[in-house]
Write a structure and sequence with these properties.
ATP hydrolysis activity; binds adenosine-5'-triphosphate; P-loop_NTPase; globular; 4-stranded antiparallel β-sheet; Rossmann fold
Length: 293
């Protein structure tokens, strides 16, 4: 099962974000990192067929994005789940299933199962407007799963959550991936989104880390590698808790040091007065499993 973006181009307001972009979603759980404006939401939106690329193709096992089977197979949780006043958690999830083309009865049954998978069964009858932020994040995942998704796309799902709730969310995601035929792509600007990255559980939790940057050549991610390889990019002696942020800074630093500033990157960089990521120069170990360009 493979979700592939081939030669995709997309511009916002005439400024290219992706150009001739190729991406194949890896197995398991992939963390998509990068600073604000790097194009993470754009990539997710295209993969979710919420955005139509200006050029190129998107397909899951040969089924084109936008087709009925593609939409059923790909679940998407956009940045920030808005509760629907008046609907219970189960009604909300069932409603999303119905929007995805399920019959009402099936959507209702599937909503119960989806809530169980994200550990929200006890809140099934609660109004969505009453759910705490962590409950909403889990609810968003349930809406992504209700229609039997094989790919789950999550945009900043844990923004603003306390550490404990991020840990619960991370454990739920890992369980979902380990249960079987599900790939997850989680986009965030914050490498501490999944607490495991800052502990020794990184390799068991995150399968792949992919990095986009504003300054990259838009045809491929700046970096893609295992969690272990990614963390090894942090300068030697970095405390484990700081390793995710330091590794990201190093990867971004090595990309920006390569002198391949894109049109978009140059524009964005000058807009922000951005002189580079925290002054960290990228070097790090050359992991065999990762690619940094
Ligand atoms: N609807 C839009 N109209 C105009 N420009 C947009 C639009 N959406 C995104 N952009 C611009 O495209 C670039 C990529 O945005 P995108 O949201 O994909 O990045 P991101 O990595 O997800 O950033 P963030 O974490 O801030 O959401 C940014 O410079 C952004 O300002």
């Amino acid at each position: 099962m493979t979700l592939v973006l081939s030669a995709c181009g997309h511009a916002h307001g005439g400024v290219p974000v992706l150009r001739d972009f190729h991406y194949e979603l890896p197995d398991g759980l992939t963390l998509l990192l990068g600073p604000e404006g790097a194009g993470k939401s754009t990539l997710l939106g295209i993969a979710a067929s919420e955005l139509t690329p200006d050029s190129g193709t998107v397909a899951l096992d040969g089924e084109p994005a936008g087709s009925h089977s593609y939409r059923r197979a790909v679940g998407w949780m956009p940045d920030g789940v808005m509760p629907m006043t008046g609907l219970t958690a189960r009604e909300f999830v069932a409603y999303v299933g119905w929007l995805k083309g399920m019959r009402r009865g099936k959507a209702w049954q599937a909503a119960g199962r989806a809530l169980e998978r994200v550990r929200l069964t006890e809140y099934a009858g609660s109004r969505t407007s009453r759910l705490a932020p962590d409950g909403l994040a889990l609810l968003g995942s349930a809406t992504g799963l209700v229609h039997g998704a094989r790919v789950l796309l999550l945009d900043e799902p844990t923004a603003g959550l306390h550490l404990h709730h991020r840990e619960v969310f991370q454990d739920v995601l890992r369980e979902l991936v380990d249960e079987g035929d599900l790939r997850v792509l989680l986009a965030t600007a914050d490498p501490a989104t999944l607490p495991a990255l800052a502990t020794d559980g990184a390799a068991d939790t995150v399968d792949t880390v992919t990095v986009l940057d504003t300054d990259q050549d838009e045809s491929a991610p700046l970096y893609s590698g295992t969690a272990e390889d990614f963390l090894s990019r942090a300068p030697e002696g970095t405390a484990r808790g700081r390793a995710p942020a330091a590794a990201l800074a190093a990867v971004l630093g090595s990309g920006r040091g390569s002198g391949r500033d894109s049109e978009r990157g140059s524009e964005r960089g000058s807009e922000r007065g951005d002189a580079g990521p925290d002054g960290v120069q990228g070097s790090g170990a050359d992991g065999a499993e990762g690619t940094a360009r």
